[in-house]
């Protein structure tokens, strides 16, 4: 299946936004019969080009940067057709990470499933790369980076597959942040990585198999109830373990506690 949507990941300063802009310009040039900067090109006709790139607020209307972003996204989702070209760059970054990721994924799914238009979707939400396993028409690509020890070199080239990380700390180093700030950021980043890996949360692909874009309300409520029950179960297990004093428990009592916990989990 030929992909109609590319999810572009990679570091800041890597060239993601430029890649989106140049794609739109090349489509315009081709459609007016002009030359394009390529040895050969096969470009289909588009009826409209939509772009959600950049960030700015609207002081006159009293709208925040995020509100402007959402209004523009709403316009795209309502007006785009299957023959449109849509460029979306870093949507969902103006709010909390959880909210932003949920909004970005929902928009991406809608573009792929409901509209089916050609889309270039640049993002730092690496979780979205897992959707390649769900949608045959969605493919990952990334801005390539060459690591040289602690330094990075941005090649400004696009390669297949998702980026492994965003290189935010490396970009901050290039920007000249004080060493004390950079060292503290690296320590915090290591801690956050450990916390995230310890959680062992379900992958987004598995979650997507349970909650699709057009799920029925009763299915969603059932899944929500199941998740709440599971969270409640693990809270009970944790409380039980917290109440155990290893120094004052006999081997027989410890074995009985383990048996009780296994029964609780199975039920």
**CATH-assigned homologous superfamily of the largest domain:** P-loop containing nucleotide triphosphate hydrolases
CATH class category of the largest domain: Alpha Beta
In DSSP terms, counting alpha (H) and pi (I) runs of 4 or more, how many helices? 8
CATH topology term of the largest domain: Rossmann fold
Tally of DSSP β-strands: 6
Strand/helix succession = EHEHEHEEEHHHHH
Summarize the biggest pleated sheet.
Answer: 6 strands, mixed
Q: Structural class of the helix and strand makeup?
A: alpha/beta
User: Could you say which overall geometry the principal axes of the C-alpha atoms support?
Assistant: extended
**What would the average pLDDT be, to the nearest integer?**
84
Secondary-structure arrangement, i.e. CATH architecture of the largest domain: 3-Layer(aba) Sandwich
Helicity, in percent?
A: 40-55%
Strand order of the largest sheet: 2-3-4-1-5-6
Q: How many domains make up the 3D coordinates?
A: 2
User: Could you name the ranges where pLDDT drops below 50 across 5 or more consecutive residues?
Assistant: none
Question: What is the straight-line distance between the termini?
Answer: 44 Å
> Rg to the nearest angstrom?
24 Å
Percentage of β-strand residues: 5-15%
């Amino acid at each position: 299946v030929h992909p109609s949507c590319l999810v572009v990941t990679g570091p800041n300063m890597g060239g993601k936004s430029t890649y989106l802009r140049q794609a739109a310009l090349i489509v315009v040039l081709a459609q007016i019969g002009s030359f394009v900067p390529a040895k050969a090109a096969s470009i289909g006709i588009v009826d409209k080009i939509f772009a959600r790139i950049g960030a700015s607020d609207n002081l006159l209307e009293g709208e925040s940067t995020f509100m402007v972003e959402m209004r523009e996204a709403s316009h795209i989702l309502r007006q785009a057709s299957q023959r449109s070209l849509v460029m979306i760059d870093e949507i969902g970054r103006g709010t909390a990470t959880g909210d932003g990721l949920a909004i970005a994924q929902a928009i991406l799914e809608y573009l792929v499933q409901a509209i089916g238009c050609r889309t270039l979707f640049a993002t730092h939400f690496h979780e979205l790369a897992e959707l390649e396993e769900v949608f045959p028409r969605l493919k990952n690509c990334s801005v390539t980076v060459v690591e040289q020890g602690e330094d990075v070199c941005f090649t400004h080239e696009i390669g297949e597959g998702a980026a492994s990380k965003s290189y935010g700390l490396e970009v901050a180093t290039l920007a000249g942040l004080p060493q004390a700030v950079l060292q503290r950021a690296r320590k915090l980043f290591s801690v956050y990585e450990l916390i995230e890996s310890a959680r062992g949360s379900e992958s987004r692909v598995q979650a997507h198999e349970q909650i699709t874009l057009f799920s029925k309300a009763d299915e969603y409520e059932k899944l929500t109830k199941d998740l709440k029950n599971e969270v409640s179960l693990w809270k009970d297990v944790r409380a039980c373990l917290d109440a155990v004093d290893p120094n004052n428990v006999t081997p027989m009592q410890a074995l009985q506690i383990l048996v009780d916990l296994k029964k609780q989990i199975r039920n």
